[in-house]
């Protein structure tokens, strides 16, 4: 048929190298793709095959992850280091090849090794295949808006310092829009993103939060936006003056240039989830310039305060999925696997007590966990290869379905119960049958601080059935699940001091990482993986790895 005849192979080469760039009044060596920050925007149509040849000319081990791509039967291309593949060593290359099907909208790609994603990232845009159109009026132009985070340091050193000492990492020095800090930061008036618009036209903003450790509020002075998609999944139109994006998430929003011609700031600053701590790293800005207007001082939006949880919650909980989307799957009603998973920061014993590795609270090291299992990546073989070749000793399948103690968010003595506060390191995964339906209640713990964790699941979209604050109470909540038109996502910002319920069908064999997308929490262990068994037929099983698959 014509729609299949139009499917194309879209091929790119990524040359990953160190280079020097100037930001915030100084030069800094960074690792980047094809010499640009952010890296190239990849554009495909739904149904296309994407092939990206990655040449690692950087001094670091490297992998690339295609964040939010379903990777149906192509787990070898997913990318998280030591989960689905061993790293591409300096001087080596690997070609990622996968079909982009059953999803449209905005996704992105990023390094999935150490903190390299701070500078190794870019947009991945999926448009409808020929013969199909958007479920909203065709925009005049489409504009990627990549929100990022910048350090005046080598980011790998920043991460290593945090993991070695067990203390929190140093704060970033700026947030960025399309790689630029914007003119509220020193030496940055030329380092400001500008978007030219024509009065009366509508623009599709493809907003991506690529920041490492911060959720962000995004606003445009005097303009409203209409959200039409999140995480490459269509939503019912939702009109708002502020967009909230957690690291890993994306928002597609229509912007109509319908105000008095002039200049308006777009701006983003953190929705800080650590209670009581204001951000020190400022506000990033870009400038919307109506065509034909002369230079004038742009109008600045009033951004929500760093602790404005009601505004964040309103945005996150009001979005609903578009049932008329061609990719809508419906919510599975029957649940095969029920899980209750605590997510949060913990403490762990020092590697060598009394030395530099002991700078966390109580002379211990900061760690994080799911159900008190602090996830450690294997180093000898990727988990996916271990799964495919039946190799023992790389991971264990005893990830607990519930926490070791009944968790009570409101009870301080429970919070300081050692059984919850102190965690141990392991590589425990949850094994599920092909096509099993899985429901996970994610509960923030707040043992060391009241935080919101953006939990990202590789390989699947999930429905968000409910979210709220305090203790999850199954008796009250189940009646309030949205089973009709819940939003579909790959990353859920579990509310500050609260919980969220997600549900998905494990229809893709392989090993699928689930983890906090705050990069500081990933090496601390806030992760696990789903090992989804092969289905009954060759068509429902994971095919063998490609020939150039990196060796450990
Ligand atoms: Cu965008 Cu496992 O990450």
The major beta sheet can be summarized as: 6 strands, mixed
| Fraction of residues in β-strands | 35-45%
Radius of gyration: 22 Å
Q: Percent helix among the residues?
A: under 10%
Q: Could you give the distance between the termini?
A: 43 Å
Say which molecules are bound, naming each kind only once.
CU-O-CU linkage
CATH class of the largest domain: Mainly Beta
The fold-level CATH name of the largest domain is: Immunoglobulin-like
Task: Look at the helices and sheets and give the structural class.
Answer: mainly beta
The neighbouring-strand order within the major sheet is 10-9-12-17-14-15
Uncertain residue segments: none
What is the CATH architecture term of the largest domain? Sandwich
Count of folded domains: 3
Mass-distribution shape: globular
- How many strand units? 32
Average pLDDT level? 93
The name of the CATH superfamily of the largest domain reads Cupredoxins -  blue copper proteins
Tally of helical runs: 7
Main location: secreted
Domain Plastocyanin-like: 16-130, 142-292, 398-535
GO molecular function: copper ion binding; hydroquinone:oxygen oxidoreductase activity
Cofactor: Cu cation
Write structural notes for this entry.
The chain is mainly beta and 552 residues long. The protein has three domains: 1-132, Cupredoxins -  blue copper proteins (Immunoglobulin-like, Sandwich), CATH 2.60.40; 134-323, Cupredoxins -  blue copper proteins (Immunoglobulin-like, Sandwich), CATH 2.60.40.420; 337-540, Cupredoxins -  blue copper proteins (Immunoglobulin-like, Sandwich), CATH 2.60.40.420. It is 8% helix and 38% strand. The strands form seven sheets. A six-stranded mixed beta sheet has the order 10-9-12-17-14-15, with no helix packed on it. A six-stranded mixed beta sheet has the order 21-20-25-30-27-28, with no helix packed on it. The chain is globular and about 65 Å long. It starts with a helix and ends in a 20-residue tail after the last strand. The model has no long low-confidence stretch (mean pLDDT 93). Bound molecules: CU-O-CU linkage. Residues 65, 67, 80, 110, 112, 248, 456, 458, 513, 515, 517 line the site of CU-O-CU linkage (C2O). The site of CU-O-CU linkage (C2O) has 11 residues, from β5 and β31. One of its GO terms (cellular component) is apoplast. One of its GO terms (molecular function) is copper ion binding. Its cofactor is Cu cation. Belongs to the multicopper oxidase family.
């Amino acid at each position: 048929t014509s729609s299949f005849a139009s499917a194309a192979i879209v091929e790119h080469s990524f040359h990953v190298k160190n280079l020097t760039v100037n930001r915030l009044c100084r030069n800094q060596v960074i690792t980047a793709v094809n010499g640009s920050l952010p890296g190239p925007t990849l554009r495909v149509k739904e149904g296309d095959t994407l092939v990206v040849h990655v040449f690692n000319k950087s001094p670091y081990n490297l992998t690339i992850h295609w964040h939010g791509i379903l990777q149906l039967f192509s787990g070898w291309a997913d990318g998280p280091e030591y989960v689905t593949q061993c790293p591409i060593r300096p001087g080596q290359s690997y070609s990622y090849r996968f079909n982009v099907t059953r999803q449209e909208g905005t996704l992105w790609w990023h390094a999935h090794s150490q903190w390299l994603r701070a500078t190794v990232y870019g947009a991945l845009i999926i448009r409808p295949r020929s013969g199909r159109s958007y479920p909203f009026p065709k925009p005049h132009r489409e504009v990627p808006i990549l929100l990022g985070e910048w350090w005046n340091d080598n980011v790998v050193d920043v991460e290593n310092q945090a993991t070695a000492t067990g203390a929190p990492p140093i704060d970033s020095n700026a947030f960025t829009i399309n790689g630029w800090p914007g003119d509220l930061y020193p030496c940055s008036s030329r380092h400001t993103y500008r978007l030219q618009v024509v009065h009366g036209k509508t623009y599709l903003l493809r907003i991506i939060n690529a920041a490492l450790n911060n959720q962000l509020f995004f606003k445009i002075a005097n303009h409203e936006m209409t959200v039409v998609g999140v995480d490459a999944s269509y939503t019912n139109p939702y009109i708002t003056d502020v967009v909230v994006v957690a690291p890993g998430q994306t928002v597609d929003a229509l912007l109509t240039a319908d105000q008095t011609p002039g200049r308006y700031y777009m701006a983003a600053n953190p929705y800080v989830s650590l209670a009581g701590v204001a951000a020190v790293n400022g506000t990033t800005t870009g400038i919307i310039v109506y065509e034909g207007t002369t230079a004038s001082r742009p109008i600045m939006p009033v951004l929500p305060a760093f602790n404005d949880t009601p505004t964040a919650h309103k945005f996150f909980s009001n979005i609903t999925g578009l049932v008329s989307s061609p990719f809508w799957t419906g919510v599975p009603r029957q649940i095969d696997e029920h899980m209750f998973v605590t997510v949060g920061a913990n403490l762990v014993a020092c590697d060598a007590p009394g030395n530099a590795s002991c700078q966390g609270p109580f002379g211990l090291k900061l760690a994080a966990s799911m159900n008190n299992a602090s996830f450690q990546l294997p180093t000898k073989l990727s988990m996916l290869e271990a799964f495919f070749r039946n190799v023992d000793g790389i991971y264990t399948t005893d990830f607990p379905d519930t926490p070791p103690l009944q968790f009570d968010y409101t009870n301080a003595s429970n919070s300081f119960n050692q059984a919850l506060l102190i965690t141990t390191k392991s590589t425990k995964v949850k094994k599920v049958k092909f096509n099993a339906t899985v429901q996970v209640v994610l509960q923030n713990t707040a043992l060391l601080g009241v935080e919101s964790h953006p939990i990202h699941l590789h390989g699947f979209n999930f429905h968000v059935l409910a979210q709220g604050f305090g203790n999850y109470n199954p008796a009250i909540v189940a009646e309030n699940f949205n089973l009709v038109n819940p939003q579909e996502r790959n990353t859920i910002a579990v509310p500050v001091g609260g919980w969220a319920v997600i549900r998905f069908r494990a229809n893709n064999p392989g090993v699928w990482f689930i983890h906090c997308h705050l990069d500081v929490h990933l090496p601390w262990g806030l992760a696990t993986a789903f090992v989804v068994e092969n289905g009954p037929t060759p068509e429902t099983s994971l095919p063998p790895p490609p020939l150039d698959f990196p060796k450990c």
